[in-house]
Amino acid sequence: ISAGLLHACGVTSDGRALCWGSNEEGACDAPSDLTFTSVSAGGSHTCGIDEDQHGHCWGANGEGQSSILPDVTWLSISAGQFHTCGIDTSRNAHCWGANFLGQLELPAWDGGIFAKISAGATHTCFLDIDGHADCSGDDQFGMSSVPPPGHFTDISAGHAHTCAIDLLGQGWCW
Questions:
Q1: Is pLDDT at 174 greater than 90 in this prediction?
Q2: CA distance 74 to 81
């Protein structure tokens, strides 16, 4: 299940993407002919991964946020407000859509092997395979300033905040 700005989506037990709430710009108009393994609700768009690991986005596309990269297979996709990011099956990160605050910038990690990605409203956060965290984009409220310990098992970027779970299971929000 994934909550966006004014809508939410989930995947049913038979793989249908089901969305509810505001259908502004078609954010809830999930393709009915595909079987999904995951979905991510963003501002006024939604993206999902089908059973063949192909990505699909629907809804708003004014900033290119629904223009998913063709011929890529995906491990995860995260829809933000006006941008979308994902990790492909080679563990490379990709971001597309609005970049007015640097939210599409990827960390310069050695090897560039990504484990997690989360697109917030105007920032994006990443975890590498060692749990090192980094964020890019808007930092007006400190949401892109990763605190110590800096190593996490999961991360989630929100509207104006970020939360993560450290290696000891403790939650952190900033």
A1: yes
A2: 20
CA distance 128 to 59: 30
Q: To the nearest whole number, what is the mean pLDDT of the chain? A: 96
Q: How far apart are CA 84 and CA 81, in angstroms?
A: 8
Q: Beta-carbon neighbour count of residue 167 at 10 Å?
A: 10
Q: Beta-carbon neighbour count of residue 11 at 10 Å?
A: 19
Q: State if pTM tops 0.90.
A: yes
Distances (CA, A) of 81 to 64, 123, 125, 151, 160: 11, 9, 14, 26, 11
The predicted-structure confidence for 113-134, as pLDDT tens digits, reads as follows 999 999 999 999 999 999 999 9
In the Cβ-directed half-sphere of 36, how many Cα atoms lie within 13 Å?
25
Radius of gyration of the chain, Cα coordinates, nearest whole angstrom:
15
Does residue 141 contact residue 157 with C-beta atoms inside 8 Å?
A: no
